[in-house]
Amino acid sequence: MGADALERTYRAEATALRATLARRLGDVGLAEELVHDAFVEALEHWKSDGVPANPAGWLTTTAWHKALDRQRRAKAGREKLALLAVTQDRSAPAAAAPGEPESAADDDLLSLVFACCHPALPADSQVALTLRAVCGLTTAEIAAAFLVSEQAMGQRLSRARRALRDEGVQVRIPDPDRLAERLAAVLAVVYLVFNEGYLASAGRTPARRDLAAQAVALARLLHRLMPREPEVLGLLALLLLHESRAAARFDGWGRIIRLADQDRDRWDKSLATEASALLDRAIALRNPGPYQVQAAIAALHAEAADYSQTDWKQIRLLYERLQRMTPSPVVQLNRAVATRYAVGPQEALAEVEPLAAELADYRLFHAVRAELLTAVGRDADARIANERALALAANPAERDLITRRLSG
To answer: Are the CB atoms for 110 and 173 separated by under 8 Å?
Structure first.
């Protein structure tokens, strides 16, 4: 069996297996280790014996036996071993057979997400652990996204796993009366995972379509869990609206195509229609939130026949509303982009300049400022701003776009 076949199996099965083991064992870190060990054993055995008829079942059984072996060897784990033996009858958790309902596997996955986003962890650790345990990124890949060393990220992940263990965090979906207080962190992490997939922070590829797809899948699972939660509806609508434009965002060379220049005939109208229906349902619940507002902004872009016909005045008003909900210099920066087209570039530049101190290390601040400086005829200052944006950008497609501006 080639390494590519094992990699395909890993992509297809590892997340579900981690989720199942984490829920059964109550330990996210242990589940990660067991899945890794199971795939190492698969690499050794499948090469000589061939791929089993049910790879997921083989991996599940192998990982479960390794869990029991660990408990058997650990003096402190003997009591837990007895409990596992009674509750599970020493048998591996069953892998879903083809065609069987996926609700149990979906619940396992949501349980893992809620555990990774537990309030015992700081926000950046929640994101990092979700990328590792749920999305399957390597420590090196996560380190690149966070712009830290692999060693530092490894330590951060270890601290996060240890914190969950020390807090006795249960790997399960919270009770209904606790869901609302835990939801905000989960929505934030799912959105950040999507953004990392939509435009990667670093690395050789401009986008990670697998991550974006996983984030959309998680948002759909949350919607199944909480079908009348307005912000879940809003986030799912927002992600689908962004996804509807995915095919038009890069050219054949992997270069970014700006929104103004995208071929709107390549946008996925069915996703946009689904998103609009979700947003309408959210609005009807009369409990507005930030994701609903962002989805409304994305919907206005989707509805415009072309860039020049975008309702920039309405978008500017929505950003003002978003700023009242979640005050942020990034929201103000986005409002300034709308101001450029709704009012004028000079007025937009006046909104951007006061943000310099807070956004000094934010590449998009310098990129937006460069465009506005060019629009008002300050080409020399625009070049300096573009050079600063280039120095801060790590995504290859973004770097290419800024380089083209500098050489244009």
So the answer is: yes
Average pLDDT over residues 248-253: 93
In this structure, what token pair is assigned to residue 88? 């599970």
The residue among 83 and 234 whose pLDDT is bigger is: 234
Q: What's 94's DSSP letter?
A: P
* pLDDT level of residue 90 (50, 70, 90 thresholds): very low
Q: In whole angstroms, what separates CA 61 from the centre of its chain? A: 30
Which residues have CB under 8 Å from 327's CB, separation 6+? none
Which numeric CATH code is attached to 325-408?
1.25.40.10
DSSP H helical segments within 199-310, as ranges? 209-225, 230-243, 269-284, 290-303
pTM metric for this prediction: 0.84
Q: What is the pLDDT of residue 386?
A: 97
Crossing angle of the two packed helices 209-225 and 230-243, in degrees rounded to 10: 150
The residue extents of the domains of the chain are 1-93, 103-208, 227-310, 325-408
pLDDT, one tens digit per residue, over 38-50 is 888 888 888 777 8
Any idea which residue has 């950040």 for tokens? 192
For residue 335, with 0-12 CB atoms within 10 Å meaning exposed, 13-18 middle and 19 or more buried, which class applies? buried
Q: Which residues contact 224 (CB under 8 A, 6 or more apart)?
A: 106
Query: Is 383 within 8 Å of 241 (Cβ atoms)?
Result: no
How far from chain centre, in Å, is Cα 246?
A: 15
Quote the pLDDT of residue 75.
Answer: 53
Q: How many residues does the chain have?
A: 408
- Cβ–Cβ under 8 Å, residues 215 and 197: yes
